[in-house]
Amino acid sequence: MSHFFIIAVDGHAASGKGTLARRLADQFHLYYLDTGALYRLVGKRILDEGKNPNDPEAALSAAIYVRDHLSWTMLDDPDLRSEEVSNAASQSCVFPAMRDVLLDTQRLYARHPLRKPGQPIYQGSVLDGRDIGTVVCPNADIKLFVTANSETRAKRRFQQLQHQGNTIPYDVILADMLERDARDENRATAPLKPAVDAILLDTTDMDADTVFEKAVEIIRAKLS
Known about the structure:
Blueprint: E1 5-11, H1 17-28, E2 31-34, H2 35-48, H3 56-69, H4 72-75, H5 83-92, H6 96-111, E3 124-129, H7 132-136, E4 142-147, H8 150-163, H9 170-186, E5 199-202, H10 208-223
Parallel strand pairs: 1-3, 1-4, 2-3, 4-5
Helix pairs in contact: 1-10, 2-3, 2-5, 3-6, 8-9
């Protein structure tokens, strides 16, 4: 790689983008950031303070806290994966002032990653989220947009939660998924959509290994 290489992986919730992005980072020796974790950190901070995720002031205050205290200890907190925190993140991320704070944080990470102790120095980053290719890193070297139909994604989330011992019914998860999709796709600021030059990967009928192999082919072709 002749310069600092950036891969943007966007897509819907439970589409498989996080799994793909982590595997790509490992495969090509790149830094990795799940940018959704930043928004979940904001949601968790709001809930921990007993505030309302629909309050723009609470969202802004939480985003500033996350920006100023960001660490891998925070990012690796398993509580970020709870449905309660995910819903709080989805509600609070609609506010432009809050998003501006996290936008700066993501752009800084893309070029100057937060390294884990003992991690080698890499020559690029993989970021996954909702607006990496359209807003955060519009000049990314490769942009992937990962999706799947809502029923498939709800089933994946249901199975994941079951494995964690959570008994939320499938119908509830599907309804939450559709509501979250609507918020993500229709918000005024940085709505979820593929960048015009993104490569679409529909994972509805593909397992994780097949998706990974296709993405590796795309990246290797670009690097060559």
